[in-house]
């Protein structure tokens, strides 16, 4: 069975995408959140990023051709911006850390 044929993989991909879309939509109101709301939003983004990191690691570890192609496509796309997947995650974490420090002021 191919990597993308797995029901678990399909469900997790769908859930990740839906959760990401919801958080991005919610994030458009971030400036209106109170302090606790901002903390919850950041926590949810951190949890989503960790789920995404694990999901991408599954791709990297898979020997499935399509999974490897997906990783290569991501690397190519990020490479156009001078980034690696690791740098992408680091940048996201730095952004969330900066958001946390702004709340504490």
From TrEMBL:
This is DUF1825 domain-containing protein. It comes from the Bacteria. InterPro entries: DUF1825 (IPR014954).
